[in-house]
Write a structure and sequence with these properties.
With 351 residues, the chain is mostly helical. It folds into two domains: 208 residues, Rossmann fold; 93 residues, Tyrosyl-Transfer RNA Synthetase, CATH 1.10.240. The chain is 51% helix and 6% strand. The chain is built from 13 helices and five strands. Helix 3 crosses helix 12. The termini are far apart. The structure holds tryptophanyl-5'AMP. Tryptophanyl-5'AMP (TYM) binds next to strand 1, helix 1 and helix 7.
């Protein structure tokens, strides 16, 4: 039996609003990453909230990554963030391995989190499959490093897609247990921010599976590096049923593929699914798919073009990530030093 999760304290210390979120550079960015996360990261930044965004390369290596590809994907993801509207002056943008506070706090959290909590993580079960004896230890401990990413900044809000909800619940459990174990009001109990029409973008080949950078079929996803022609083709070939679009969103209930395309349209257009259904009630996919393809190209092509331009100067991307890492370190290091003090570590090394 694992130790039960303790209940939150009644009077959490007031923590200033700070947003943290991350994306794994374990493949190219997809439309799912864009709509479920990146587009919303930009919105939060533009609302004037303090925003810290991280390319979590240490998480990426919990499954095998070719070193040359990993470096390329990390730069490409950084280019994607900037091309989508993240301003490295207003947001802190960096890669995780350059700020060692993450792994240091991650280890401490490994000693707070319980084996039972980790074993219940559905993403671990999905990724490990029948092969759980043979996956890395890092994959098992993944959520405690994720909690460290967030809590090293005492972040209060974490915008993510729906698939990260359980990990964020675990982050809350770790914060609560740390606060209770050490009788402090040190870590905030974070709020997941899961909002908008596309919190779970599904595969274009199977409306019951999440669109994912690790899906073996490239046809299942739209990559932020796809050109206009490829985007158009993938959308036109997307799996759908034979019926026209309904005249009410309730009519999408048992139609996962149709619902997915409507949600993608809504998220790209900045509308609700109900508005999209009002505009396209009764339309055949022969009409709706080209409209969606045009919209997707109009929204994504400028990002892809800018990403390609930025990727021509990898040294500049590295410089931006390095500068972000210095700023991130300045926030996380004092938090970590306080944690070391709370847990009883001697810190006598002269700096
Ligand atoms: P990752 O890299 O799988 O995905 C990054 C973000 O994109 C969202 N997302 C989606 N949203 C909607 N539909 C989809 N099909 C879709 N696919 C991905 C994810 O929900 C996520 O918000 N564990 C995290 C990375 C991480 C992190 C963190 C996130 C590490 N530390 C701290 C937040 C805070 C992950 O694997 O995301």
């Amino acid at each position: 039996m694992s130790e039960p999760v303790q209940t939150p304290q009644t009077s959490p210390a007031p923590f200033p609003t700070r947003i943290f979120s991350g994306i794994q550079p374990s493949g190219g960015l997809t439309l799912g990453n864009y709509l479920g996360a990146l587009k919303r990261f930009v919105e939060k930044q533009d609302e004037g909230i303090e925003t810290v965004y991280c390319l979590v390369d240490m998480h990426a290596i919990t499954v095998w990554q070719d070193p040359v590809k990993l470096r390329h994907q990390t730069r490409e993801a950084a280019a994607g963030f900037i091309a989508a509207g993240i301003d490295p002056k207003r947001s802190i943008l960096f890669n995780q391995s350059q700020v060692t506070a993450h792994v240091e706090l991650g280890w401490i959290f490994n000693c707070i989190a319980r084996m039972g909590w980790m074993s219940r993580m559905t993403q671990f079960k999905d990724k490990a499959g029948k092969n759980s004896e043979n996956v890395s230890l890092g994959l098992f401990a993944y959520p405690s490093l994720m909690a460290a990413d967030i809590l090293a900044y005492k972040a209060t809000h974490v915008p993510v897609g729906e698939d990260q909800k359980q990990h964020l619940e675990l982050c809350r459990d770790i914060a609560i247990k740390f606060n209770n174990d050490y009788k402090v009001d040190f870590f905030p109990v974070v709020e997941p921010v899961i909002e908008g029409a596309a919190t779970r973008v599904m595969s274009l080949r199977d409306g019951t599976n999440k669109m994912s950078k690790s899906d073996p079929s490239d046809q299942s996803r739209i990559n932020l590096t796809d050109d206009a022609d490829t985007i158009g083709k993938k959308i036109r070939k997307a799996k759908t049923d034979m019926d026209p679009l309904p005249d009410h969103v309730d009519g999408l209930k048992d139609r996962p593929e149709a619902k997915n395309l409507v949600n993608i349209y809504a998220a790209l257009a900045g509308h609700t699914p109900a508005q999209v259904i009002r505009d396209y009630a009764g339309a055949q996919f022969g009409t709706f798919k080209p409209a969606l393809a045009d919209l997707a190209v109009a929204k994504l092509e400028p990002i892809t073009t800018e990403m390609n331009r930025l990727m021509k100067d990898p040294a500049e991307i590295d410089r931006i990530l390095g500068e972000g890492a210095v700023r991130a370190d300045a926030l996380a290091r004092p938090v970590l030093e306080q944690v070391y003090d709370i847990i009883g570590m001697i810190r006598s090394k002269p700096f």
